[in-house]
Amino acid sequence: MTRPKVLISDKMDPNAARIFEERGCEVDVITGETPEQLKARIADYDGLAIRSSTKVTADILAGADNLKVIGRAGIGVDNVDIPAASSKGVVVMNTPFGNSITTAEHAIAMIFALARQIPQANERTQKGEWPKNDFMGIEVTGKTLGLIGAGNIGSIVAARAQGLRMKVIAYDPFLTPERAIEIGVEKVDLDTLLARADFITLHTPLTEETRNILSAENIAKTKKGVRIVNCARGGLIDEAALAEALDSGHVAGAALDVFQTEPAKESPLFGKPNFICTPHLGASTTEAQVNVALQVAEQMADYLVSGGVSNALNMPSLSAEEAPKLRPYMKLAENLGSLVGQLAHGNLTRISVEREGAAAELSGKPITGAVLAGLMRQYSDTVNMVNAPYLAKERGLDVREIRHDREGAYNTLLRVTVGTESGERSVAGTLFGTDAPRLVEIFGVRIEAELEGHMLYIVNEDAPGFIGRIGSLLGEAGINIGTFHLGRRQAGGEATLLLSVDAPIPPELVRQACALQGVKTVMPLEF
Ligand SMILES: NC(=O)C1=CN([C@@H]2O[C@H](COP(=O)(O)OP(=O)(O)OC[C@H]3O[C@@H](n4cnc5c(N)ncnc54)[C@H](O)[C@@H]3O)[C@@H](O)[C@H]2O)C=CC1
Ligand SMILES: O=C(O)CCC(=O)C(=O)O
Asked: Residue ranges of the D-isomer specific 2-hydroxyacid dehydrogenase NAD-binding domain (predicted)?
């Protein structure tokens, strides 16, 4: 088996490369390349491990024909074009917890640095000025800290700030009242936070809702003398408006670890006496970098080697333990999707994927993803279980997942039903033993078959002589029949025939089969 190839394209703790190698991947560490260089190289790799410097754009992804996974050793994935990765079928993962404590500690360090103007005092003291009378600080004890965003990092900041005897209030529309009580913060609306906080610290991702959340208008609503910290993402604050508010003295101090444009080589904030900053160092501790490097390499290797998915942003999680159990179902699901896709005529408007028996115990999302991949493979060669749900959504396909508790005739069963303008059509399959996928029903007719290679589906009048006629037709064309499966609802009605053959059936032969006496449908199939 060829080893998956991984490229580490940003500076990362060496533990990442070690883990990739131990887990059977080939790994190259090539950092500091231009986008053009990365684009020229990326086609060789199955995995790309990054921090924040590498920008994974749609342009780079266009050439990433073997890429299966992008792993971000860190939290924010705003340097990855996730929609482009999804439509290319590339899983994007991050490491949501490995650097949270470190980043929360950086925010706390910024709060202290602002309260006591430590960087400014340090600079002047080292110049030999001994400016003892110029730096009157404030205590943080008893002050109100306003958290904008109370997720992983925000809640750690809250805990540390409570230890410092600060009163913590939080604005986060997704924070439940129960969670607010659990982390000991008062949940407030944004205007209340702006009006009450002595310190404001930001801990949200950058989204359309959070962009410029500290706009000129909102900065004007803050308490006079507020101090502002941003260790989350540049773009959350209007930097020009903040510079004005620092000049006017409305904002007493600001500390930024992140900037709207990075690397920030210039800024309206630079040089202001009440402004301090760090160059996106929030996650830069030995501990955090070891954590995220180990975690990203473990997660990516899991996916590349055994199909386990954790912390993916564009597909559901799947544990490395569950992945091998799911594998035969994925094959079955993909084949059933492909079968209905090839057989159902007309415009598909809806699809349901039902799981029964042992299949009902497994995660539904990957199975549905595999059905959709099989279904849509006719329209696109690059479709897989990652991008199939997105493509289905783009096409307006209504996708349902149904899990049955009932005991059926089979220990385990998947049923795929598609809706077209001419009605519903359904196929079903099971596993023989633990891992042999088998079709068991096709459009209401019981028929057992392995879906593999070149096949021919025929519906004909159930009358004597037909099998001989089709056998002769194929034999005369030099096409060998591998397997032969028959099913019917009742004698004398319609019979369904599913043949596997050793070569593709040419269109002319399909036409000749259609012309045989009693034939209603002939469809060549490929699996
Ligand atoms: N400076 C650095 O080096 C680092 C920065 N970060 C950044 O810190 C930020 C927070 O990270 P985590 O706490 O791990 O994320 P998280 O996802 O655990 O928490 C984010 C919180 O923001 C809240 N939120 C979302 N939209 C909001 C809105 N419109 N208004 C208020 N709250 C909103 C969410 O409900 C969530 O609770 C991310 O942007 C991440 O990229 C993370 C690590 C290092
Ligand atoms: O990798 C880094 O240094 C940046 C970390 C970061 O911003 C994140 O994890 O969101």
From this structure: 108-282
Using the mean position of ligand 1's atoms as its centre, give its distance from the Cα of residue 75 in Å: 9
Q: Which of 49, 60, 57 is nearest to 25 (CA)?
A: 49
Q: Is 77 in the pocket of ligand 2 (CB under 6 A)?
A: no
Query: Which residue is catalytic, options 233, 355, 415, 425?
Result: 233
Q: Specify the CATH number of the domain 321-451.
A: 3.30.1330.90
Domain 453-527 sits in CATH 3.40.50.1970 = no
| 118: enclosing H helix or E strand | helix 118-126
Question: What gap in Å lies between CA 204 and CA 404, rounded to an integer?
Answer: 39
Q: What is the edge-to-edge ordering of all strands in the sheet holding 186-187?
A: 186-187, 167-171, 144-148, 199-202, 226-230, 251-256, 275-277
pLDDT at 430: 97
Distance, CA 76 to ligand 1 centroid (Å)? Answer: 8
Provide the whole-model pTM: 0.79
**Does the pLDDT of residue 314 top 80, yes or no?**
yes
* pLDDT for 393: 87
Q: Atom 8 in ligand 1: which residue has the minimum CA distance?
A: 232
Atom 1 in ligand 2: residue holding the nearest Cα: 51
Could you tell me if the CB of 283 is within 6 A of ligand 2?
A: yes
Q: Which CATH number fits domain 100-277: 3.40.50.720, 2.40.10.10, 3.40.190.10, 3.20.20.70?
A: 3.40.50.720
End-to-end CA distance of the chain: 23
CA dihedral 499, 501, 504, 509 (to 10 degrees): -60
Query: pLDDT tens digit string along 332-389?
Result: 999 999 999 999 876 788 999 999 999 999 999 999 999 999 998 877 667 888 888 8
5-97+287-306: CATH topology is: Rossmann fold (3.40.50)
pLDDT tens, position by position, 167-215 = 999 999 888 899 999 999 999 999 999 999 999 999 999 988 999 999 9
The pLDDT tens digits for 266-279 are 999 999 999 999 99
Report the range of poorest mean pLDDT among 212-216, 244-248, 452-456, 490-494. Answer: 490-494
Ligand index nearest the alpha carbon of residue 52:
2
d(CA 476, CA 472): 6
- Which residues' Cβ are closer than 6 Å to ligand 1? 74-76, 96, 99-100, 103, 148-154, 171-174, 203-205, 207, 209-210, 231-233, 257-258, 280, 282-283
Distance CA 217, CA 203 (A): 20
In terms of DSSP H, where are the helices of 257-301? 286-301
Please state the separation of Cα 255 from the chain's center in Å: 32
